[in-house]
Structures are given as C-alpha cells and as structure tokens.
Write a structure and sequence with these properties.
With 316 residues, the protein is an alpha+beta fold. 22% of the residues lie in helices and 31% in strands. Helix 1 (24-35) runs parallel beside helix 6 (217-229).
C-alpha cells in the first residue's frame, strides 16, 4: 500500500524574512508547518545571526532551487572595528583586541579594493562540507581542514555609515553566489590593521527578488489565525503570498511550444522546432504555461531537463 505524503501539494516560492537567532532549516520547517506543505526547501542558508531574504520553494518549485542558489545576493552588513572573533561575527569569542585608527577616507580606499573578481577561502564556520561533514562541525571541535578557494565577484560595496564613536561600520554589498560577507569584513579589518567582525547581517535581495516582497513568520502565523477565525481554509490568505515557480528562472532564455508539443516534452520526447536553440538551460512554455526547463540535445532538438509532475499553472 502506497504511503500518503503528509501535508498538501502546493507549488510556489515564498520570500521569507528569516528572523535572527534561528537556523535557516528551523525557519524552513516553521514555514512548511504553517503552510502544511508536503515538500519544501530553502535556497541558500543564512547564519543564525543573519536576517533577511530566504526563498522557500514549495512542491515542484524545489526542482529549480539551483537557479536561486547560483544567483547574486545583496546584503546590508554592520561591523565592529577593533575586535577579531573566532567566527568573524559576534557569535564567536573575541580572540584579539586592537586600537582603531581609521578615517572615513581610509575606509573608502580599503573598501574599494574588494571590488571585482578575487579568490576567497570559505570560513571554517561555513556549511560547506569536507568528507561529508560540514566545516562548522570541524571548527567546533577545534579542527581545521583544507578548503578550496573560490572565485567570487563583488559587484558593489558601499560605505553607508561610519560611527567613529562606537567604531562601527555599515556597508551594502552586492556579490556573486558563494561570497562570505564575514570573510570580507575580517579581511577588511586586517587590511585596516585593527581587526573587525560582523555584528549585523541582513540579506535584502536574492537575484531580482525585491525586499518589499518578504514576509515574516509572525505575518504568516497572523494570516493563518485570521483564516481560522473566519472559518476559511488556511490557504485563503497564505497562498496569495506565493510567487510563481518560474520567477526563479528570469535569466533563462525562453522557448514557446504548442500544447501538443508540451505533452511530448513532458513525456521525455525530443521536440523538433526547426530553429537554433541556445546553449544551456532553457525555460519552456507550452501554450503560455510554464512546464519546466529544457536543453538542446546533440541533434539540436529540445529535450526535457527538469519537467513538472503536473501541468497546473503556478500561483500568480
């Protein structure tokens, strides 16, 4: 006898404003519970210290999480100068205290040096894995393991505020995937000769998603309570917040096919279109409805890469 999945089958993307003090997985599980969703996953973890945009993918949208993981991010970060910690943020222990002799002009000069492409070594307190185990677990045991440097790109890094009285700096950073902001802050502190660590980190954007579309767990709980008070289905207010799953694919080229061709595509059959298809992943619409991603096969025809299990339209 087939086992029934717990929860309801919903598809879409929720832009959760993760609160401070809990892990991204804890935030995900709370959102999943509020929605009573069968399946959910997040796209890019935030540290417990951090707040801000955490896209939650429900149902079929989980097939396209990689596109959000790969996109650029924007952060607002506040750093404390004069102190270096074990984790490069305020959750760690202070290991070094130094005098701060920094001017706004010097700050701006050093900040500008981070712009563009560079190599960055991941923090030992990151969620990256070494031999199947997250780096932060090794770090908590006092073990340091080899880490590969990665190419990052800092598209912009601006100084928003310099509070000289409290030795605090606030910046806005627009960066490529996989960039560790606390590593930038630690490096900045070393370049300034005084040390620094993150005391506040807020992710304000993931790719093209705007900050004003974010909702908090408290807002979700309030809407759930409102629906119950009005004797409505929980989905009455909650599902209106979900974005269509194909909003994760705005950077992909689009190919339109007919409904009949869409049926063939969904059954794994190559679709002959009589035109040259672009390289890489392609967003596929059948009669105007998103049905998945495809790619060009060796014969130049369209084949399925990530298809939807159903042909229902996404929320929107």
């Amino acid at each position: 006898m087939a086992r029934r999945s717990k929860g309801r089958p919903i598809d879409g993307i929720l832009l959760l404003n993760k609160p401070q003090g809990i892990s991204s997985n804890r935030a995900l599980q709370q959102a999943k519970g509020i929605y009573f969703a069968q399946k959910a996953g997040h796209t890019g973890a935030l540290d417990p210290l951090a707040t801000g945009m955490l896209p939650i993918c429900f149902g079929e949208a989980t097939k396209f999480t990689q596109f959000l993981l790969d996109t650029d991010k924007t952060y607002v970060v506040r750093a404390k100068l004069g102190e270096r910690t074990t984790t490069s943020d305020s959750d760690g222990e202070v290991v070094e205290t130094r005098d701060v002799n920094v001017t706004k002009e010097l700050l701006e000069q050093e900040i500008a040096k981070f712009l563009g492409e560079s190599d960055q070594y991941p923090s030992m307190y990151s969620a990256l894995k070494y031999e199947g185990k997250p780096l932060y677990k090794y770090a908590r045991e006092g073990i340091e393991v080899p880490r590969k440097c990665r190419k990052i790109n800092v598209f912009s890094l601006t100084l928003d505020e310099f509070d000289e009285a409290n030795n605090e700096v606030q910046m806005t950073a627009h960066v490529s995937k996989g960039t560790y902001i606390r590593t930038i802050v630690d490096d900045l502190g070393e370049n300034l000769g005084c040390g620094a660590h993150v005391i506040m980190l807020h992710r304000s954007a993931v790719g093209h998603y705007p900050a004003d579309k974010m909702v908090s767990l408290e807002q979700l709980e309030a809407l759930l309570a409102k629906a119950k008070a009005e004797e409505l289905a929980p989905s009455s207010y909650l599902d209106e917040l979900l974005l269509p799953m194909d909003t994760a694919l705005v950077d992909l080229p689009v190919v339109e096919i007919t409904k009949e061709q869409g049926m063939s595509f969904s059954h794994g059959q190559a679709v002959v279109l009589g035109k040259v298809l672009p390289e890489g992943a392609i967003k596929v619409l059948a009669d105007g409805v998103f049905i998945g991603t495809g790619e060009r096969n060796p014969d130049g025809h369209l084949k399925s890469k990530r298809g939807l299990s159903n042909q229902q339209e996404t929320p929107g």
